[in-house]
Amino acid sequence: MTGPAHDPADDPMPLGGVHIKYLHHCPRQLWLYSRGYRPEQRSDLVAFGEVIDDTTFTRRRDIDLGEAKIDWVTTGAIVHETKSSRAPSPAHAAQVRHYCLLLERRGITVRGGTVHYPLIRRTTDVPWDATARAQAEDSEAQARATIAATEPPARLKRAHCRGCSYLDYCWGD
Prior knowledge:
Blueprint: H1 17-25, H2 27-34, H3 44-55, E1 63-64, E2 69-70, E3 72-74, E4 78-82, H4 90-105, E5 112-117, E6 122-127, H5 130-148, H6 167-171
Parallel strand pairs: 4-5
Antiparallel strand pairs: 1-2, 3-4, 5-6
């Protein structure tokens, strides 16, 4: 499935995979991230994820699209993303769909994606079809609306925030 070539410079607000992942994980996290609040730099979990990414699948090369960095793409345009999580998440699949959409807009015929979970030795396939494309476009629209909001979205229940680098901001005294 491919659409017309798209110039990323035409986007009113370029969105990367992190934007989409944060939207699906916690809209408040996306809102804060878009305003420059970046506590990930001090997070041990983020550092651990970077180590997993750097030491797994070492023969691959990142694909830098400017607004997004894809872990790698294999022959046949299969997008691959590596996660340090021990559990698959809808946010991970949404991120891969977003990457598929970005590639398609650049005129590349994408076949789908795979999320790799090396810690549990599992993969999750992410299909790319008309439904997935509509989901990716909807995620972009939701992300832009969240970023444009003048007030931050409500906090999630605290139990959902375990391990989040934004925990202190949202729940600190």
